[in-house]
Structure formats: C-alpha cells, structure tokens
Amino acid sequence: MDDVVRKTNEVGDGTLILERVYLSVYNFVQWIAWVCVWCMTLRSFAIHASVFEVYADVGWLVAACQRLAVLELVHCAVGLAGGSPMAAFVQLAGRNACFFLVVRHDHEAQKLVFPLFLVWATIEIIRYPFYVVVTLAGKAPNWLTRLRYNAFIPLYPAGMLCEMRCYFVALPAIRLRRLFYFLTSFSLGSALPQLRLEFNFARFVQALLLAYLFVGPLQYSYMFHQRRKRIADLKTAARSKTSWSRQILAFMAGLISAFIAVGFGEIVGHLVAPPPTNESGEVHMANLTFLHYFGVIVAGSFGATVGGMVSRSWSEDIQPTVAVATLLLLSMIANLLIIPGPTWFWVVTLLQVFPFALFGRYLSSGQPS
User: Fold this and answer.
1) Nearest to 24 by CA among 301, 273, 356, 355
2) Of the candidates 274, 279, 268, 265, which has an alpha carbon nearest to the alpha carbon of residue 292?
C-alpha cells in the first residue's frame, strides 16, 4: 500500500518537473499495459472457451509488466518516490517469484493463471491511475482514493490464494524435476572436512507457503492501518469549492460532448476515407488501411479534447474530466474488443485519451491541469 508518488507536490524547478513527467509516463504506461492484460485475459477465455490458453496468450505481457516494475524499486531507492525500498522489494519479489520461478516453468500452474491475471490486473488498473492523477494534479479525487484504499479488501486475499494455489499445484512437478536444485561441495583446507552447500527449491516453496499463512495476515492488517489513515484524511479534508451537483453536470456535459465529437470525427473520417465494403455492403475489416485506423485515432483524440474542455468549463475540479476520460477509455476498449485491430492501433488508441483530455482542460483554462 506504500505510495510510489513523491510526497512533495511543488513544481519549483525544472528537475522536479522532469521527475513528475517521468513518473506520470511510467505509471500511465503500466496502467495501459495492465488494462490490456485484463482485456486480453477475458478475450482469450472468450475465444478459446477455456482458461487453459490464457498463459500462452497473455503471459508475455504480464512478464513485461513485471520486469518493468523493477523500476519501482529503483524509484524508492533513489528517493524519486515515497515508500520503503524494502517494502517495495518484498512486494515485487513475491509476485515475481510466483510468476517467473513457478508459473513459467510448470504447465499445470499455467492452467490456473486466469483468476491470477485478473486479480493482478484489477489491482494495477486501480493503483496506477491513482499515482498518475496524484503526480499530475497533486491529489486524487475522493472516489478514486476510496477505491484505491478499499479495493484491496477482497483483492489482496484473492491474489494471495491464487498465488498459493499455483505454488501448491506446481510443487509435485518441482520435486520430480528437481527444479532449481543446486548442490555443491568445497573444502577450506586439506585438514578440514568438505562443506556441502545445497539449495532445494521444493523445500523453499514449502517454506514460502507457510510464510504466506503468517506474513499474509500481517501485511493485510498493515494495509487496513494505511486505509484508516487515508479515509480519516478524507473525512477531515475541507469540502470542495464546487458542489457535487455542479461536478455531476460537468461530467455529464463533458461525456455527452465527447461522444458527439467522436461521432462527428468518425463521420468526417468516413467521408475522407470511405471504409471498404464487400458485395453485401458490410465493412471488410481485412482491407482497412492505415488511413482508416488513423481516422479513428483522430476522432478519439478530438472527442477526449472536447470532453476535457467542456468539463473544465463547467467545473474547475479535475474529477469530472478524469471521469469523462475514464468512461471514454472504457468505451474504446469495448470497441476494440468487438472490432479488433493491429497492436499499434490498440496502443495508440488507449494511450491518447487522458493526455488529450488534460490538453482540453488546458485549452479551456489556459493553465496546466
């Protein structure tokens, strides 16, 4: 539960601005990657009507996310982010040990990753937006803070049980194959007996399963302690200058404007580059060109910009803009799942929404969000 956002919110010098930009980009990329993990996991299940192919379809992306997460340990170590380096190491090592040492080497454990990937992805698609908003705006909306510090209540024990299940199922194969087994002997002198050094990964996994039973509840109680502090801060914080009714109107106006702008942009795109159709008049997806995909991207960025402008014109708070961008992003994800496109199209479409929404706020106010 340790925040990986630098505690200070001042923007005094160029170095700090670069740090904020770097942390925002890192957290945003991780968020988009885990959103893709979540969507691809469900898509794999829908395509194959089975959970057994999820690892083959999504495992490479989870591995990339976990490798990239090593940077969070560096962030804590160099003081770029708050939190304890040791706590960051324990959290990162626990998940990486399960994935890289067990799941990647055992076929039976790979069949169980469907709930594991969904739980991990759900945790991260809540955590990383929180860090992005705090880094850019100084504080997160109350609803996002409450979600950040309440979602762990079901997700943490669910993730722990999924990881323990992978360890337990893989344990017989680890014993049989003597996975990561290491044995050597050496002597410190002719008059001394030889020393025998052995590492038995199967015993290590057994010890790890016992550690889950003792360390898990301690970590869970620590998370509740952090939650109490955060929720108390929310209750004692001053009320927002903008009323809730005004924020709701700003959200609704921004969302409606964003969807109208997207529709308008797509109409213009179809006029500029009409989509190819077959003999029955249906759109032939296989013949879509770069220009067709680019038109969809421009329509999405235009809609996000308009949504940011309209929501900012109704309310100075950032919450309506974030909500508009979030729903617009979810609608784009749903559209991508229904009408698949190339990987680069997925990446650009998902990465553009929040930057252009914040750009729209800037155009409306003349000041950075």
Assistant:
1) 355
2) 274
- What six digits make up the tokens of 126? 């809540």
Backbone φ, ψ for residue 301 (5° rounding): -65, -35
- Kindly report, residue by residue over 293-335, the tens digit of the pLDDT: 787 888 888 888 888 888 887 777 788 888 888 888 888 888 8
Contacts of 281 (CB under 8 A, 6+ apart): none
Short-list 318, 143, 130, CA closest to 234 = 143
Determine the Cα–Cα distance for residues 305 and 257; give it in Å rounded to an integer: 10
Which of 12-16, 47-51, 68-72 is least confident?
12-16
Task: Choose the weakest-confidence range: 169-178, 179-188, 233-242, 261-270.
Answer: 233-242
Residue closest to 324 by CA, chosen among 240, 256, 246, 245: 256
Nearest Cα residue to 314 out of 356, 364, 357 = 364
Q: Is 71 exposed, middle or buried (0-12, 13-18, 19+ CB in 10 A)?
A: middle
pLDDT, tens digit, 9 for 90 and up, residues 155-199? 988 988 899 899 999 988 888 888 777 766 666 666 666 677 777
Widest CA span in the chain:
90
Question: Which of left, alpha, beta for 79 (phi over 0: left; psi -120 to 50: alpha)?
Answer: left
Query: Two tokens at 225?
Result: 């302690």
| pTM, 2 dp | 0.63
Q: What are the phi and psi torsion angles at 192 (to 5°)?
A: -105, 150
